[in-house]
Design goal:
Largest sheet: 7 strands, mixed
Strand content: over 45%
Shape: globular
Oligomer: single chain
Number of helices: 0
Length: 115
Amino acid sequence: QVQLVESGGGLVQAGGSLRLSCAASLGIFRINVMGWYRQHPGKQRELVAAITRDGSTNYADSVKGRFTISRDNAKTTIYLQMNSLKPEDTAVYYCNVRGSVDNYWGQGTQVTVSS
């Protein structure tokens, strides 16, 4: 059974920082892309940041320059460093792992940014 264990959400004031982590119980050879998505109430889930197996990254325009996605040396744990947080970053953040045919989601972690 594949597991994605997320941690690091919480409540922070605007301008503050949080760091999310997601550990996947898959071998690196089954992983093509790992990333973070978020979902605002009543809206569709949207990509925040992703990192491919070869290390390429991409970000949503709304978080460029503020958020950084990274991973550990084993390439099965990813992190999302979120700086200069804004109230509009408030959402449930989900870890996602995609392989050639697999697609897995974490349970989600709430991030709340107060103004």
